[in-house]
Design a protein that fits this description.
With 215 residues, the chain is mostly helical. The protein has a domain of 95 residues. The protein is 47% helix and 6% strand. A two-stranded antiparallel ribbon has the order 1-2. A two-stranded antiparallel ribbon has the order 3-4. A hairpin with a 2-residue loop joins strand 1 and strand 2. The radius of gyration is 20 Å and the shape is globular.
């Protein structure tokens, strides 16, 4: 898979190993993340949701047991299932549809182990209060801003993780809808939470400012 993210043009040639041409792919799995040729994260989000449901099914005997307290089920979700869904999310340039997919999957899980469906007309906030789980959208922003703080405090000679742009880097935008970059996503998070960028240099104050407490 060739990712053409920069302004540099490359020849579209074949790659061979021991005389055998390697098939070209539009997506590629790397250390638990799905990379797309066009730089989008749709496949990655779907893959992480599937990973969360896999953890759910493995623990369904406990999560669906009515004898287990709902708060304990919520703690298990926060410890095992949600981290699987948000693996690598600190580098995601998320759009509204990505967050919506994650939120829908989370609420289905929480309602399921609470013994409710949408027909019961129990509000999402009430479900979250019962199990002690904060919205996954807010936790996603917390992950991203925590990583942003690490990037800001790093020494100038430190390497940059894939997916995070350094100052001065350019991103090639293709035709059609303009895709949101990671930097633009972080700026949106700052505006939404009304946090000053300068606060990142104080690790303790920064962690306190971006912390999302569980209900």
């Amino acid at each position: 898979m060739m990712c053409d993210f920069s302004l540099t043009r490359h020849e579209d040639g074949d790659v061979s190993l021991e005389g055998q041409v390697v098939a070209k792919k539009d997506t590629f799995r790397y250390i638990g993340s799905m990379l797309q040729k066009d730089g989008d994260i749709d496949e990655n989000v779907r893959h992480r949701i599937s990973a969360g449901w896999l953890k759910w099914r493995q623990a369904s005997g406990v999560l669906c047991d009515k004898m287990v307290p709902q708060r304990l089920k919520g703690k298990f979700y926060r410890t095992v299932i949600r981290p699987a869904m948000l693996y690598g999310a600190e580098c995601w340039p998320t759009e509204r549809r990505h967050v919506q997919h994650l939120s829908v999957a989370e609420m289905r899980m929480l309602r399921w182990f609470c013994g409710h469906t949408r027909r019961d007309r129990v509000r999402n906030e009430e479900i979250r209060d019962r199990v002690g789980v904060a919205p996954i959208e807010e936790k996603l922003i917390q992950h991203r801003l925590r990583w942003f703080g690490h990037v800001q405090r790093r020494p100038p000679e430190a390497p940059v993780r894939s997916g995070v742009l350094k100052r001065g880097d350019n991103v090639k935008r293709g035709r059609g809808r303009l895709r949101l970059t990671w930097d633009e996503t972080v700026k949106r998070d700052f505006k939404r939470w009304n946090i000053a960028k300068e606060l990142t240099m104080d690790r303790s104050a920064w962690r306190l400012a971006i912390n999302v407490p569980e209900p």
